[in-house]
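User: structure tokens for Carbohydrate ABC transporter substrate-binding protein (CUT1 family), please.
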Amino acid sequence: MNGKKWLNGMAAGVMLVGLLAGCGGNNKNENASPSPSSGTGASPSAPAESSSESGKDVHLRVYTFGPELTYNWSTTLKAYEEANPGVTVEAVVLSDKGDTQEAMKKLDLAFASKENIDVLMFSDPANYAQRVSLGMTEPLDDFIAKDGGYKVAEEYKVDTTLNGKVHALPGKFNPWYVLLNKDHLDEAGLPVPTDWTWDEYADYAKKLTKGEGTSKRYGTYFHGPQGGGWMEFLKLMMLNQPINSDFLKADGSSNLSDPNFKKTLELRVKMEKEDKSSVPYSDIISQKLAYRNQFFNQSASMLTIGSWMNTEIGGTDKLPLSFHVAVAPFPKNNKGDTIGYAPVTTDYTAVSSISKNKEAAYKFVRWYTTEGQLIQAKNVPSWSKVTDGQLNPIIDSILAGTMNPELVDKDSLIKTLLMSKASEMLPGASYQGEVYKAVNEEYEKLILGQQDIDAMVKNSQDRTQQIIEANKK
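Assistant: Done. Predicted tokens:
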């Protein structure tokens, strides 16, 4: 769907909300977790008090996809209120199960309805960039200038600058890493890597593969691509680069001529077809395999995945841990490359452009993405000033929520998190999803033996260019 169509759809939503209001109406997913609907017990549709910044008391409403269980809003917001008398903060949780798609739909409707929204949270760069382009966020540059003029790229591990302006500050820092079955590594005489390449990763996977048939243990498991999603697994050797880490460039043009795209395909084909060290793509799709089960059931010795797994790597009720786990950084391409660049997810925390309390909202956003992350103690912060000593208790708190934290090599986890860094953030094009789907379809033809790598690259390039051209109209 192109940008014009998206804007038209949003405009239609605004008109629909207006009609509902005129009629007197008030109408206001694997990561599921039950939680209260908001930090104060109010629902997203509930009317909220709001005062202008000239008033004495300020009531801020934070619209978020993060439920209480995984974001600890009650403790976090209470700490802010105690430090800022006269300010109350309400977390409006848009999805009790942390479903970001559901949350974004509700957020768009709430914004179109002109609800009292002070702070917005987005879970990925595409949603962030799209809402910025729709004017839903307030530029923070003037606030930052008054606040000492710090540079986001230096203050945080994720640079949220878009087209020269800052519209959000990053909260958590979830880089991708590699989970390792340390018992399998010990059995094969392999050390826990602290600096390695994809070639070395492939060598590890080959040495860790064992057995045949239904009882075969694979060296690694790659969970994607699937239906245009989990596309990180077709960008493995692009994502560890400081710039141009996606299929599209910042200007929306194709980046599929990047040699690291083809090298990723060569890596995937070699590991599955030649080394037979990665779980076959056909099995992943036909059997609807789950990455957690593959790793915790010891069907695969290595799992490349996001560090949202921190809350689970010590085992859970559903997937208990019966072996030792270690963590390694996202591999690099060449020996001389800098280790640590990896795909990163964060919370893009922004001030709403329709807030009546923008200055107070900015003050909260700045606090939440710095000191507030330490108080929340649910995620590793993006704030670059967090020290090893401050990170340790956060990791201890996270691991304490698992069944067997003693089986996790905490030292390798902390070292990996500290060395990780995000590549340049690119604005998500409105047609990005179409490109992902097309590349996914061409990959399926490749991995299922219907075309070779050169044909897959060319067809992906051709289809991507057609999508780009179609969206210029």
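User: Anything notable?

Assistant: The two ends are 12 Å apart (CA to CA).
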